[in-house]
Structures are given as C-alpha cells and as structure tokens.
Amino acid sequence: MGSSVAHNMAVAEETEAANDRPVDVPRRWARGWPRAGAVTARVRAFDDRVDAWVEQRRSRRLDPLFFGLSSAADHGLLWMLIGAGRAARTGEPIPALRLAAAMGIESAATNGPIKACFRRVRPPIETEEPLPYDLHRPRTSAFPSGHATSAFTAATLLSRGTRAGPAYFTLAALVASSRVYVRMHHASDVIAGAALGIVFGQVLRRVLPMRPKR
Known about the structure:
Blueprint: H1 2-20, H2 27-30, H3 36-57, H4 63-72, H5 77-90, H6 93-116, H7 146-158, H8 165-181, H9 187-207
Helix pairs in contact: 4-8, 5-6, 6-7, 7-8, 7-9, 8-9
C-alpha cells in the first residue's frame, strides 16, 4: 500500500513538472540538447512577463475586439470569408478556392503532426462559465498557436499582388495576439505560430498561387 501511494505521488509530481514546461521536448531529443532546460526557462520567463503585461491592460472595452476576433478566426473561417468577399468583388472564384485548399493543408499539418510533437498545456482559465462570443477551448497542444499559424499563412497568401498587404498582416497580428488576451496561448506559442504561418504561406503561394499567371 505504501509503495503504491509513493508511486502515485511520484507520477503526480512528474506530470505537474511536465505541464509547467513551455514545450515538452521528447527525451531522445533532449539528450543531445544539454541547454534545453535553460532555454525553456527563458521562454517561460518571457511568457510570464507578457501575460502580466496583458493582464494589466485587459478591460471590458477590449473584450469585444479580441474575443470576437479569436472566435471569428476559429477553423480559419474569418480568412475564408475574406477570400469569398474578394471573389465576389472581382468575379474570380479560383483564388478563393485555392485559399481554402491552402488553409486546409496548413490546418492539417499544424493541428496534426506538428502539434503532436509537443505537449504544452494551455494557460489556466479561472472561470468555468462559457466564454464570450461562443469561443471554445481546444484540447490540442498549445504550441504552436493554430490561430496565429493560419492567420499569417492567409495574410502571406492574400497580400501577394495587392496594396492591401499591410492591412492583412495587421489583421493577422490582431488575431494572433487575441489568443494571448483570451488566455488560450502564451506569447511564445503565438510567435512560433506566426513564423510557421509565414513559412507555410511562402511555400503554398508557389503551389497554389492566388493570382493567375500572365
């Protein structure tokens, strides 16, 4: 009985320690990365500073903007609507269809094999009440942020050949930062997702160009 209790306590302590790490690096990788602990500690400290800064500026006036954007961008819906709006305005449906296909590829890769490599716990939410604007809490790994990845993938694709590029990237940055505001991600999740989204966008716009070649 005593050994069983001790074993359970050890397992609980190990699980708590794992949840506290910013990114759970598989042990076989960590063996060749002796400074992994120092790196993750710095990432955690950075995230804590950003979380504290955001917490001081959270207000009811900002809630509609950030909760609304975060909810609207679920499953890439916001970007699909933008693509459909452009298609309706220009009369060219092919770019919108290619955007939808590109976003599907990005989502499958990010929420599948990429997130499977990490097991990061999302920031705690103090209330058990339903979140505003029908926002739901995903069960996947927090790292990297899927919203940030899809936002910057879409912005990279949509900005090609148009003067509205800065507007698309501004919207992408707002969507990405909203995930920190609504406590779905830490800042490092969002930064990693944004960088990954730009890479996806650069690759996918060669495979699925938004503008027809002339």
